[in-house]
Write a structure and sequence with these properties.
The protein has 324 residues and is an alpha+beta fold. Strands 1, 2, 3, 4, 5, 6, 7, 8, 9, 10, 11, 12 and 13 form a 13-stranded mixed β-sheet that branches.
Length: 324
């Protein structure tokens, strides 16, 4: 990419850059420690620039008009005005001093970024022991060390989380349109820039889903999926096989007494194919266990051919299943 400037970083922090520009900046930040230092320095300048010094003169004028309405004696008014002028100055100094102390003396979160390209997945372990798997084309922003009363992360894409329990410090993942809050659980969260629907599926524990624009709050139980439509701003809950929703993170397909109809339904979703089943197919035969996700649907069908005794034929994107 072209040389990174402060204005480009400002657009990045304001959310005014394209997806390609955002990925380029993330790559630039993670390329070297020196780039990381430059970015955090510019980030400090950016947030410092958002704080404006209180307008003491305007505050005094408002106070003066109010005092004039309440008093008829000029001397008393002048005295009160003088007192409030100094009071306003003291408040200003205290505010600026407090911010300066907070900013330069208090401990700050040092943010880190991790991203994945097309066809790439990554897994990381956070400072608190939480395990995170990132699906392709995903960006995660997280602190090097958690401070305060919450564990905050920012996600653009899809990730699977196994969260370490800490009742005193809730774990919050903020997406583009929806955020998820947990204490300790396993869940999959997908909220990508430009994607109309954000969704989260719960495997274990309990999560609280909330819209970033006040769309409501929903508490999920294992085996449920919440979806938030960015266009209609509606949140809905569905029953789901949460393990299937998160298959991408470990390539393991969990099956529990699944017959051929359930198995082919799962494979249709994972491999973008269509199945046609013979009328005489045995519906009573079931499969329990973990089926490894393979690179091709043919490899999976070869395994099923030997375990539940089926035959198959493939024509383009359609697969015909029959009994052996």
């Amino acid at each position: 990419m072209d040389q990174v400037t402060y204005n480009k970083i400002k657009d990045f922090l304001d959310g005014n850059c394209s997806d390609e520009e955002r990925r380029d900046i993330i790559e630039w930040i993670t390329r070297s420690k020196e780039n990381e230092k430059v970015f955090f320095h510019w980030e400090e300048l950016y947030f410092l620039g958002k704080f404006k010094e209180p307008d003491v003169k305007k505050a005094e004028e408002k106070l003066w008009k109010r005092i004039e309405r309440e008093s008829n004696k000029r001397k008393q008014v002048l005295k009160i005005r003088s007192v409030f002028r100094y009071a306003a100055m003291i408040v200003t100094l205290l505010a600026v001093s407090s911010f300066a102390f907070w900013y330069f003396m208090a401990p700050h979160e040092e943010w880190k970024f991790v991203q994945t390209a097309s066809g790439e997945t990554k897994n990381i372990i956070l400072e608190d022991g939480t395990k995170v798997w990132l699906n392709e084309n995903t960006i995660l922003k997280y602190p090097k060390q958690f401070f305060g009363k919450k564990r905050m992360l920012e996600l653009d894409g899809e990730a699977y989380f196994e969260v370490s329990k800490n009742k005193q410090m809730p774990f919050i993942v903020e997406g583009r349109t929806m955020q998820i809050e947990v204490l300790g659980t396993k869940f999959n969260f997908k909220n990508r820039t430009g994607c109309r629907v954000a969704e989260a599926s719960l495997l274990e524990g309990e999560i609280r889903a909330r819209g970033n624009k006040g769309e409501g709050m929903i508490l999920l139980s294992p085996g449920q999926r919440v979806e938030l439509n960015a266009a209609t701003r509606q949140m809905k809950v569905f029953a789901t096989d949460a393990g299937i929703d998160a298959v991408w993170h470990d390539n393991l397909i969990p099956l529990d007494n699944a017959n051929i109809f359930r198995i082919t339904s799962i494979l249709e979703e994972l491999y973008d194919v269509q199945f046609i089943l013979s009328p005489d197919i045995d519906k009573t035969v079931t499969y329990s266990g973990v089926l490894g996700r393979k690179k091709s649907i043919t490899e999976v069908l070869d395994i099923l051919k030997e375990t539940i005794h089926i035959d198959y034929k493939i024509h383009n994107n359609t697969i015909f299943i029959s009994t052996r």
